[in-house]
Write a structure and sequence with these properties.
single chain, 77 residues, alpha+beta, two-stranded antiparallel ribbon
Length: 77
């Protein structure tokens, strides 16, 4: 079997690794039911966390983390 080209669409059922897909994904009943409370965790690397499960990457640039936390809080206010 050759690899797909621009003229041949890839078969989505081939080469799927199901180990990468979680068995259960928790989704809230309604997105507006969540109270988004964002906190900033400071350490060697800073990151922000929300009560909905959202989290930023660890960064040394504190201004970027605070901006991401503010943006998330404003988006879900």
């Amino acid at each position: 079997m050759s690899s797909p080209t621009a003229h041949e669409p890839a078969d989505p059922t081939v080469d799927i690794d199901l180990r990468e897909v979680p068995a259960v994904v928790s989704v809230p009943a309604h997105p507006d039911d969540l109270a988004h409370q964002v906190i900033v965790v400071d350490g060697r690397f800073m990151h922000a966390e929300c009560s909905c499960g959202w989290r930023t990457a660890g960064r040394r640039n504190r201004v970027t983390v605070r901006a991401e936390a503010r943006d998330h809080a404003l988006l879900h206010a």
